[in-house]
Fold this protein.
Amino acid sequence: MDWRSFWDGDHSIYVNQRHRTLHDRRVADDIIAHINRPGLVVLDYACGEATEAGRVANHCSQLILSDGAPSVREKLQNRFGTINNITIQAPEETAHWPDGTIDLVIINSLLQYLSREETAKLVRRLFTKLKPGGRLIIGDVIEPTTGALTDAMALLKFGAEGGFFLAALGGLIRTSLSDYRKIRGALGLTTWTEGDFLALLRDCGFEPKRLAINFGHNQMRMAFEGWKRGSV
């Protein structure tokens, strides 16, 4: 099994419904915070089920939801298919989206599942989709010093704050015996130093910077912004 197959199948990455609800709400809030003016075309790449996407769509002229898992796209279609300014795509369709037409690209919690070569290829491709002055924002980038224990502690803290601490504790036990843990052990997760990731964005044509706040609850992971030179 590879990562795409895992995300396309049944999995229990969320410990309960409250965990999913609070996670999706927080990520949506983080995305909305980066929509800095009306009328933007926004691409949420590898969006997952994005249950709060309807709220995000209220803040932009068009929201493109792109995900590689057919089962996820089916859920997105069922949930958001009738909303006029939401477009649901496979990554192959996104690759053929017209160049220079997107204002903001969001990638959250994806790059740990891609090789460095795949990440560089993706960043270069998305660079072409952005308008001059457009932005690429990438969240949940893992540093080499951030391990599974750090992630576990971040989840327990989130659970304590959100009222699902015991469920989070039980979820960590289940995860240790799950396919996720097996795949993570077999394939590992791709990590980046801050300097290496800034250099990647720069090599791909962006003016890069590290952001002070990561997407979601785990602030031990990094987030970055790349700005495409040119007028807005």
In short: The chain has one domain: 14-142+189-228. The mean pLDDT is 91. Residues 14-142+189-228 form a domain with the Rossmann fold fold (CATH 3.40.50.150).
